[in-house]
Amino acid sequence: MGPYLKTARRYRWLLGAMLALVWGAGLVAAYSEYTTTFESEAIIWVQRAPPQLAGNPEDPNVTVVQTAASQQASLFNQLFLADSFLRDVVARTSLNGTLGNAVQERKALDDIRKRLRVQTLGTNLLSLSFTGRDASIAREMVDAALAVRGQRVAQARVTATSQISGLYQKQLALGQAQALDLQRQVEEFDQNHDGPLSDLEQRRRDQLRLALDYVQIRLGDLRGRIDQAVLAPALVDVSGSEFQILDEAREETVPRGGVKPAALLVTIALAAGAVLAALLVLVGTLLADRLAGPATVGRLAPARLFATVPRVGTDGRGKRDLRAELALIAFEDAGAGSRAAGR
Fold first, then answer.
1. In this structure, what CATH number is given to the domain that contains residue 228?
2. How confident is the model over 274-285, as pLDDT tens digits?
């Protein structure tokens, strides 16, 4: 540890300047990030009719239990992955027409995707937020995302309703044809049998009437399902019970949302400064040790090594030991060392 501390004291001004530069740049960047970041957030209440089951986005065949908020958050996250959704969102804001060419558009959409964030706050409560350099743009992005989401969901409902209604209409047409055929058979049977009916004929007539009644009941059920498929989504939209915006997105006047990025920048700057300082001390210590030996000096051409000064160590026995060591080094005589020690 001693050599490293010595090297640190030797290069203290260089270390101080380097740390001031790195840490200062990190603090300035963190301050700029914090003071120029604005976040706009909307709080949403969602409700979903039972059953409380939904499909896993990674494997639609696996059924998992989800809350209403987590289901809507998953829907938002999936919509954020679609570039067409983000284009529609940008088209509703002041950034419309600023995406540029294909490469610039891709980068811009990726940046917007990172800044949009949805978070569940409870079983029926979630928040949608956007962080940006402009407070008005942040509010517009949140409002546009909610509007485009509502439009996409409405279109999906219309498509699903149309498909279900078409299926029911086909079944209704088949049922009506079957009912007409049974009605015709009953009328023909009544026309051909005016008198009293035998047991076999009565059973045949009862079977035809029972089949006709069953088909008519089936037709009534299909008509009810068609009406329900058409009216249910409309009733949900009119009541607004499924998706309610409790707190609208606002244009913030003070910086908000830049605490985590600023803290990350400060942490990176502190770590980078510490690593660079440790590296400088380590390299300085290693170079000092390598250049201090006779072998290194001997390799310096055209200079020639003509003398070395050895290290003299003491074992704590007093000044006479030091004199003996010096005499031994100077005269290379063990007797001289003993005589010097006896004086």
1. 3.30.1890
2. 888 888 888 877
